[in-house]
Amino acid sequence: MKVTIVGAGNVGATCADVISYRGIASEVVLLDIKEGFAEGKAMDISQCATTTGFNTRVVGSTNDYTKTAGSDVVVITSGIPRKPGMTREELIGINAGIVKGVAENVLKHSPDAIIVVVSNPMDTMTYLTLKATGLPKNRIIGMGGALDSSRFKYYLSKALNKPSNDVDGMVIGGHGDTTMIPLTRLASYCGTPVSTYLSQEEMDKVAADTMVGGATLTGLLGTSAWYAPGASVAYLVDSILNDQRKMIPCSVLLEGEYGQNDICLGVPCIIGKNGIESIVDVKLNDAEKALFAKSADAVRAMNGDLKSVLV
Ligand SMILES: NC(=O)c1ccc[n+]([C@@H]2O[C@H](COP(=O)([O-])OP(=O)(O)OC[C@H]3O[C@@H](n4cnc5c(N)ncnc54)[C@H](O)[C@@H]3O)[C@@H](O)[C@H]2O)c1
């Protein structure tokens, strides 16, 4: 089983590291446009093999897509961060050009691959990849909900003062500070509702902390985070390659589900060997439905900035 990761930066390299360390794939190709960068990262990760005990072959490539041939899954993390003075539209234009070009290149060599989109703004980049490639919706998956949900569970565990792995919860909607929807009403601790233990005020704080979880880390690190994002991508890739059929919130094309059409947005999906195996219809209450519609409006407005790239 072969995975290509385009963009050997912080998130891409961490993802390659986790996939190798956990033996999720037999081969990982890291590709980057920066001369020698992916080769260096691949060599560094490979040199962990004997001390951490893995057998995954990790290969680096400077923009040579022939090395990616026959990949089962391709992860796209390539892109640039927003620079001072750059408008959102300019950022979208640049990253859209990168993501579109990368998707076209990888498909030349891996026509059957499932594509996982990570580059931001992720929901818009997922929509772009879908439109630009014309692939069926099950093969284009946006990763954001897995990360946001892990942050939600982290903040829940802190508020409950209980281990993260005893806590369950899910974040749906857009992958952005103001568009994501932590489903506090459905969150649980060992099968019991968290509302048993936390006040409404405490639950609201957990939701608010989750929504700015990425920004909090950017403030601390000076750049966006990579350990949890990389691990979240690896978790998703594992469910695809090993047909685990895990339920993971992912950005996927909606065709009537959750009352939306022609938009990629985070909803719970069953993830297996065909990518998106199905979308799970979780019954939202009226307040959650209103938040989902508002989130869709914001992402749809951003998708409007793709017009020049999609012509
Ligand atoms: N969806 C999520 O949950 C999530 C989480 C974290 C980060 N992100 C996003 O993921 C992306 C990567 O983040 P990062 O921290 O790894 O950034 P980074 O700057 O460390 O890495 C990006 C890499 O992409 C490479 N690149 C740029 N253009 C390329 C091209 N045309 N072909 C190949 N490689 C190219 C760069 O050389 C760089 O090494 C960003 O857009 C970031 O906002 C998304």
From TrEMBL:
For this chain, the family text in UniProt reads:
Belongs to the LDH/MDH superfamily. MDH type 3 family.
Q: Which residues bind NAD(+)?
A: 7-12, 32, 95, 118-120
Which residues does the record give as substrate binding sites?
A: 82, 88, 120, 151
Query: What name is this protein filed under?
Result: Malate dehydrogenase
Task: Recall the GO molecular function terms of this protein's record.
Answer: L-lactate dehydrogenase (NAD+) activity; L-malate dehydrogenase (NAD+) activity
Q: Which reaction does it catalyse?
A: (S)-malate + NAD(+) = oxaloacetate + NADH + H(+)
What does this gene product do? Catalyzes the reversible oxidation of malate to oxaloacetate.
Q: Where does this protein come from, organism-wise?
A: Flavobacterium suncheonense GH29-5 = DSM 17707
Residue ranges of domain Lactate/malate dehydrogenase C-terminal in the record: 147-300
Q: Mind telling me which Gene3D superfamilies this protein's record contains?
A: Lactate dehydrogenase/glycoside hydrolase, family 4, C-terminal (3.90.110.10), NAD(P)-binding Rossmann-like Domain (3.40.50.720)
Gene Ontology BP terms? lactate metabolic process; tricarboxylic acid cycle
Q: Where is the Lactate/malate dehydrogenase N-terminal domain?
A: 1-142
Could you tell me which CDD domains the record lists for this protein? LDH-like_MDH
Q: What keyword terms does UniProt attach to this protein?
A: NAD, Oxidoreductase, Tricarboxylic acid cycle
InterPro entries attached here? L-lactate/malate_DH, Lactate/malate_DH_C, Lactate/malate_DH_N, Lactate_DH/Glyco_Ohase_4_C, Malate_DH_type3, NAD(P)-bd_dom_sf
What EC number(s) are associated with this protein in UniProt? 1.1.1.37
